Amino acid sequence: MAAENWELFRFIQKSNLKTAFLSKGDAFVNILMMLINNFSFIFMWWVIFNDKGTINGWNFDDMALMFAVSGLSFALYAIFFRGVAELPQYIENGTLDSYIVSPRNLLFMASTSFSTFANWGDVITALTMYFLSGYVSAGGFILFLYLSFMAFLLTYAMRLILSTFAFYTSGTESLGNNIMMTFLIFSNQPATIFTGIYKVIFLTVIPAGFVSLFPVTLLKSFTWTEFAVFTLGTGGIFLLSLFFFYRGLRRYASGNRFGIR
Predict the structure, then answer these.
(1) Gap between the Cα atoms of 199 and 195, Å rounded
(2) How confident is the model at residue 194 (pLDDT cuts 50, 70, 90)?
(3) Residue 5 neighbours by CB under 8 Å, 6+ apart
(4) Cα three-residue angle 133-134-135, rounded to 5 degrees
(5) Burial class of residue 164 in the structure, from the number of CB atoms within 10 Å of its CB (0-12 exposed, 13-18 middle, 19+ buried)
(6) Is the pLDDT of residue 106 over 70?
(7) Exposed/middle/buried for 236, CB within 10 Å: 0-12, 13-18, 19+?
(8) What are phi and psi of 55, to 5 degrees?
(9) Residue 114 half-sphere exposure, CB side, CA atoms within 13 Å?
(10) Is the pLDDT assigned to residue 166 strictly greater than 80?
(11) Does the pLDDT of residue 243 top 70, yes or no?
(12) Contact, 149 vs 76, CB < 8 A?
């Protein structure tokens, strides 16, 4: 099954690339606009740190690491698995039926059904910020890729949990989008600004700290204890998202549309 999903994944991505490059000019303009947007935001923070020096112990190099991990993790989600954000629509209009009758994995098919090519700009931004961070090494780069992948799993899991609300009530798409936006905003702020009860929320209710705080700490000063907490915490949230999805799927009532993919 894993081999079949991998072949399917490769086919879908090739199709997405062909679709994106139907107009090469538009494709490259979209990436360029994403780069301009990203580096404008980063430049704003550079100005702030250039004036303040540090914010609760964080300097701009730490922010560069955070932008690298959060950027690459979101890019993986947006380029390859953004279809998970479309699940509320699939559930409400019955499109999910076409995935249910398919012999392939339902969640995998739905998750890979949508992609945003412009987010390749996030990949370029992330790699640029990592190599500008001042924490570059061969082992560090491998760790950076691992942490980014785990942060991607967390981002995917958060969106999946929010999408499962649609199994229980209608009109949840906007709510899910707003909560997801809050998660993304928090994960792009200096982690040290959250203290006390806000830090607890930052690591649990809206676990943006697993995208920003843990990866930066591990890339700066690796410890097996924090590595285990990060890995197990992220893995636990991912498994929880799968539980919520398949539990909600039991409540699903087929819609009016029916087709086979």
Answers:
(1) 5
(2) confident
(3) 104, 105, 108
(4) 90
(5) buried
(6) yes
(7) exposed
(8) -125, 105
(9) 12
(10) yes
(11) yes
(12) yes
Residue in 67, 79, 199, 206 with CA at minimum distance from that of residue 144: 67
> Which residue carries 């954000």 as its tokens?
85
High-pLDDT (> 70) share of the chain, %: 92
**Phi, psi dihedral angles at 38 (to 5 degrees):** -65, -50
The whole model's pTM is what? 0.89
Across the chain, what does the average pLDDT equal?
87
Quickly list DSSP for 20-80.
HGGGHHHHHHHHHHHHHHHHHHHHHHHHHHHHHS-BTTB-HHHHHHHHHHHHHHHHHHHHH
Residues 74/188, Cβ–Cβ less than 8 Å = no
9's CB contacts (< 8 A; 6+ apart) are: 80, 108, 112
Alpha helices in 164-251 (DSSP H): 173-186, 197-203, 213-220, 224-249
| DSSP type of residue 95 | T
Alpha-carbon distance of 138 to 158, in angstroms, equals 31
Which pLDDT tens digit goes with each residue over 13-51? 788 777 777 677 788 899 999 999 999 999 999 999 999
